[in-house]
């Protein structure tokens, strides 16, 4: 049974605690014999707080239901004023903003939050998918946008992707299928069994997990592995991916690395 | 009867001016002729009076006390001409004939009253040796031999003088009139052309107005004042049209909001209910409806708002983004997707979002048509081409023309789309001055290619 802890302060505080606990784990001996080992690991669930600013009650209900199912804590407000006030007082991990609100615009809420220095990841919901609006939303400092109508599964996936960013609420311990990657301890487990990966394989996997379900471009992977300055053999990334893929299969990981030829790689969760 | 009515204002003006000049020439020539004949008549009258007075000057008292005419030789010869074109008779105050050019006139005047204070004109019919008409007058003249009544007449052949004068006039003067008219007409045409130039300039300006440049207004400077009201009215019509466009744009945005909110609710609610069977079918139906609404709105937008295709866009970057965006969909449906040729920029003029939409449309189609475990190949080439090849059944040659029509769907197609996607692609490419073509892929399957005109200079790495 996972221990639920409520985070009253900043998310940073949260990660700090986890870091300490993972540090202990990193000290623990790793198993030998193949890349898979048998060592159970206590995982801790986080409280992730999501704010929804949406005036359409039915949409708010549906989105709330979907996010609660994904075990997020959800607050809903219906006006721009309430949204701005909520963002100013509570350290949300993600905010979902509808653009058309009765007393203003979601972009105003966003601008107010950014002006106060809130770096909370923001996902814009809009029925107005006119090109200008998209550009406007991203210029105003939104991190992602979804055009109505959207599938709730897509919404949850986008929210998780925002949370998996470095510094995001789910950015410290990444999970995909039965694979867990602790970004502080740099260890990877499959079904709670440690799996032996090289430093660069872990780095590749980390980036793929942060972009779970989306394409991780190869040139970005190269930069993550070697930095911009370093001379990279054009085969370096494919070789690391190849090894990583083999090890994941050996350890019966449910996630799979797909190649998008000419672009990069994609880590896909098993289909339900 | 059909009246000749040229469409061009210039031709109309020229035509009417030509008619006007013809009429003016007619009037001018007529007036000249009338004046000439009047002058000729006057000349005739004066001529007769002069002759009468000349005759009277040579009437003298004879040695025997009677009054006689003693003309000089040339005068005598003139009246003695056998043709008798000019005749005279002179009577004294008592009515006695003093002298006459011939017996006929002498007899004739004896029955006539003496001349009064004013010259009296008369006409003789069938007179003289040639039995002609004669015109003449009786004039009372004082002479050395006392008061006389002189009658002189001239044969009607005086018209000959008139004809001679006319002939002279036509040959010496009148030939210049058509040339003058032609020259005037030429000047008039040039003046019309110059005068109409501002109109042509306004027309050129008006030709530039299309849904994309609706804010253009026709300039009023340099226009003839008669045309300004028309141009102003047209400009006001453009104002109203622009407002209409704005309304339509607003309508599109409103329709998007109104339709999509309920659709979002239905989609989300269906997602939230656990279960398969009917529910799975309903989810598919709603997904199809979502797609249809989305495409309808895109078409409405393409129709109502002209695309701004003036930016420099990188086809390689757009293709990368589209493939990246749709790779998860392809992979979730057990297809793979690859991109070739995107390692260097391919710059063209265009609208980034519209091109990306078009590309996504084609890639989505390819994902739907390629069999599982096959690869979709997206290729960008330096000459401004993006092609998408799948390994499905391809497009039948007879369908290729209508494939891009709105609401057209191939017979026996799986029927998930509304038949708008390819129409959107076609319109987008048309707006870019390019086109979309369909062909067979090398290994079978469909090959769609977006062709952009004039790729910009590609920087070499």
- Radius of gyration of chain B (CA) equals 51 Å
Indicate the overall shape of chain A.
elongated
The largest pleated sheet of chain A is described as:
5 strands, parallel
Indicate how many domains the architecture of chain A comprises.
2
Between the first and last Cα atoms of chain B, what is the distance in angstroms?
75 Å
Series of H and E elements of chain B: HEEHEEHEEEHHHHEHEEHEEHEE
* Strand percentage of chain B: 15-25%
Largest sheet of chain B: 5 strands, antiparallel
Helix content of chain B: 40-55%
> What is the CATH topology assignment of the largest domain in chain A?
Rossmann fold
Name given to the CATH homologous superfamily of the largest domain in chain A: Response regulator
CATH class wording of the largest domain in chain A: Alpha Beta
Poorly predicted residue ranges of chain A: 1-33
CA radius of gyration of chain A is: 20 Å
The low-pLDDT segments of chain B are none
Domain count of chain B: 3
**Sequence of strands across the biggest β-sheet of chain B:** 4-3-7-6-5
This entry's quaternary arrangement is heterodimer
The greatest interface here is: A-B, 36 and 36 residues
Features of this protein?
heterodimer, A: 272 residues, alpha/beta, Arc Repressor Mutant, subunit A, Rossmann fold, 2 domains, 5-stranded parallel beta sheet, 4-stranded antiparallel beta sheet, elongated, disordered N terminus, B: 461 residues, alpha+beta, Helix Hairpins, Heat Shock Protein 90, 3 domains, 5-stranded antiparallel beta sheet, 5-stranded mixed beta sheet, 14 strands, 50% helix, rod-shaped
């Amino acid at each position: 049974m996972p221990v639920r802890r409520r985070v009253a302060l900043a998310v940073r505080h949260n990660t700090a605690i986890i870091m300490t606990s993972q540090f202990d784990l990193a000290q623990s001996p790793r198993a030998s014999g193949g890349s898979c080992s048998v060592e159970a690991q206590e995982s801790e669930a986080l409280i992730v707080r999501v704010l929804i600013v949406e005036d359409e009650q039915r949409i708010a209900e549906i989105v709330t239901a979907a996010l609660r199912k994904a075990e997020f804590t959800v607050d809903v407000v219906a006006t721009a004023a309430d949204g701005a006030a909520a963002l100013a007082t509570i350290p949300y991990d993600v905010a979902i903003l509808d653009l058309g609100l009765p007393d203003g615009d979601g972009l105003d809420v966003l601008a107010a939050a950014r002006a106060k220095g809130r770096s909370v990841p923001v996902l814009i919901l809009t029925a107005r998918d006119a090109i200008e609006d998209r550009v406007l939303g991203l210029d105003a400092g939104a991190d992602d946008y979804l055009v109505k109508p959207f599938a709730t599964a897509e919404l949850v996936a986008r929210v998780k992707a925002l949370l998996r960013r470095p510094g995001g609420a789910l950015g410290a311990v990444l999970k995909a299928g039965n694979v867990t990657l602790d970004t502080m301890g740099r260890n990877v487990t499959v079904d709670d069994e440690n799996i032996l990966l090289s430093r660069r394989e872990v780095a590749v996997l980390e980036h793929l997990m942060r972009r779970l379900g989306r394409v991780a471009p190869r040139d970005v992977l190269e930069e993550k592995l070697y930095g911009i300055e370093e001379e990279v053999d054009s085969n370096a990334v494919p070789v690391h991916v190849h090894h990583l893929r083999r090890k994941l299969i050996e350890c019966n990981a449910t996630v799979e690395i797909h190649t998008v030829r000419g672009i990069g790689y994609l880590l896909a969760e098993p289909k339900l | 009867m059909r009246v000749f009515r040229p469409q061009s204002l210039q031709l109309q003006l020229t035509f009417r001016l030509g008619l006007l000049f013809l009429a003016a020439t007619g009037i001018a020539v007529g007036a000249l002729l009338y004046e000439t004949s009047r002058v000729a008549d006057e000349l005739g009258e004066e001529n007769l009076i002069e002759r009468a007075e000349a005759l009277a000057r040579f009437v003298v008292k004879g040695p025997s006390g009677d009054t006689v005419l003693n003309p000089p030789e040339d005068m005598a010869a003139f009246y003695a001409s056998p043709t008798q074109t000019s005749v005279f008779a002179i009577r004294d105050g008592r009515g006695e004939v003093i002298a006459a050019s011939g017996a006929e006139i002498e007899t004739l005047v004896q029955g006539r009253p003496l001349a009064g204070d004013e010259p009296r004109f008369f006409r003789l019919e069938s007179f003289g040796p040639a039995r002609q008409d004669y015109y003449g007058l009786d004039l009372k003249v004082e002479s050395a031999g006392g008061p006389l009544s002189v009658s002189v007449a001239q044969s009607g052949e005086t018209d000959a003088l008139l004809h001679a004068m006319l002939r002279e006039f036509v040959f010496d003067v009148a030939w210049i009139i058509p040339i003058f008219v032609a020259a005037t007409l030429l000047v008039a045409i040039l003046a019309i052309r110059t005068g109409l130039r501002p109109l042509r300039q306004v027309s050129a300006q008006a030709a530039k107005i299309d849904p994309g440049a609706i804010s253009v207004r026709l300039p009023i400077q340099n226009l003839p004042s008669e045309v300004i009201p028309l141009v102003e009215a047209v400009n006001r019509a453009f104002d109203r049209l622009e407002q209409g466009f704005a309304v339509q744009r607003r309508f599109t945005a409103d329709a998007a909001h109104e339709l999509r909110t309920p659709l979002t609710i239905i989609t989300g609610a269906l997602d939230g209910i656990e279960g398969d069977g009917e529910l799975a079918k309903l989810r598919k139906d709603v997904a199809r409806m979502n797609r249809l609404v989305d495409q309808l709105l895109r078409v409405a937008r393409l129709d109502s708002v002209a695309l701004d295709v003036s930016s420099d866009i990188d086809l390689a970057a757009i293709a990368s983004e589209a493939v990246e965006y749709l790779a998860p969909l392809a992979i979730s449906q057990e297809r793979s997707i690859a991109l070739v040729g995107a390692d260097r920029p391919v710059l063209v003029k265009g609208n980034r979002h519209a091109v990306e939409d078009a590309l996504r449309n084609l890639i989505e189609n390819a994902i739907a048509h390629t069999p599982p475990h096959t690869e979709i190949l997206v290729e960008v080439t330096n000459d401004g081409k993006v092609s998408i090849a799948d390994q499905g059944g391809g497009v039948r040659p007879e369908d290729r023309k209508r494939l891009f029509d709105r609401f057209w769907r191939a017979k026996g197609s799986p029927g998930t789309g509304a038949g708008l996607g390819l129409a959107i692609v076609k319109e987008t490419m048309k707006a870019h001055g390019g086109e979309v073509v369909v062909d067979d892929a090398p290994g079978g399957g469909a090959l769609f290619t977006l062709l952009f005109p004039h790729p910009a200079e590609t920087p070499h790495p």
